[in-house]
Amino acid sequence: AEPRVVVVGGGFAGATVAKYLKILDGGIRVTLVEAQSRYTTCPASNWLFAGMGDMERLSVDYQALRSRYGVEVVADTATALDLSRKRVQLQSGGAQAYDRLVLAPGIDFRWDVIAGYDAAAAERFPHAWKAGPQTLTLLRQVQAMPAGGVVLIAVPADPYRCPPGPYERASMMAFWLKQHKPRAKILILDAKRSFSKQALFEAGWAKHYGYGTPNSLIEWHSLADNPLLELHADSKILASEFGDRFTGDVLNIIPPQTAGSIARRSGLADAGGWCPVRPATAQSTFDEFVHVIGDAANYAPIPKSAFAANSEAKACAFAVVSLLREQPLAEAHWLNTCYSLVTPEHGISVAGVYKPDTGNTINSVSGAGGVSVGNNAEAERAEAEYAQIVYRNLVADSFA
Ligand code: FAD
Predict the structure, then answer these.
(1) What pTM, to 2 d.p., does this model score?
(2) Burial of 52 (0-12, 13-18, 19+ CB in 10 A)
């Protein structure tokens, strides 16, 4: 009988692995279980805050996976995994049997870190860390804010989805505010001591937004020793451990994250909340017939990005085919590139190449990655263009 692979989650990781499994071996039956009929990409969603693009253009569907590659797409939510019987239970009542399961459910949020900030409060103070309706809510809030208003962006400790994402968002908001509300301010309250591409962001903010001067549109504050512990929703105040109180007109609170809940409920996450894997095959360390990829899995030091999710998915597809067909495994390696826009015409990037070490660790290949050169107007313009090209190619490679 034809081997059966079920993929749970049709984001960048799940869509890519489903597509590439069929490309590598058309004789495998591949079923993708995805809760939503359309997917909204988080990449490029920050650009809306600068007035670039619209939500409609961030939306993709699963038609190409079906018709071009023969993936069976099931619009349903996986509610439970029966690991001993190798079955995925669906909300509609049915079940999907598998020989190998690929789990790619992305992230869920931890509501136990900032008291008073839960799923209901997030409708009013959107995280917008899953692109969709909250992205638009946040956009409208920023646009409606008073002329001298303040946006607070609360950023969690590592690891979380898209390390440079909060700083790109601040940049894109600042670009719009500079034209429409130049007296406004963006206050980044960070649980970390430093952040991704910090020198490049700060140089860009100094160049465009007065960073480092009293009139800067953006201020960055590390609260690594004084974490945010409480939201007072009525007064819009975020309070820290030592009693500092921060208030703003718009509160964009990005909570700490974990692997998608289906992974945690099935016992496939560790105490840190993420799914440990054997990198070479993406197999869960808890169950050899389950592979975990994308944001839900722990591939550190590879960051949680769509580019990395796509790369992990391809390596996983090769491994799954080899295991099902009892062929020797190819050596895995992974790529990541994260572009960020500081303005629509000023791009910066970080890139890395990764290989498995002996054992269960991943090494960054030295000399094979790096960040933008910095302070080079021509390169900044070119990288802003590459950011858009890479986005389009990544979406096409994953969903089309
Ligand atoms: P997701 O994309 O979250 O997909 C998970 C899917 O699983 C979802 O569609 C969900 O509906 C489905 N699902 C979950 N549970 C179930 C279930 N039980 N049953 C059925 N379906 C289920 N990355 C980049 O590379 N470049 C960027 O420029 C970039 N910008 C970003 C900007 C922002 C603001 C944010 C928030 C993120 C950004 N990222 C970027 C990161 C990127 O969005 C994530 O790393 C990527 O989406 C991870 O893919 P994934 O497939 O693991 O998870």
Answers:
(1) 0.98
(2) middle
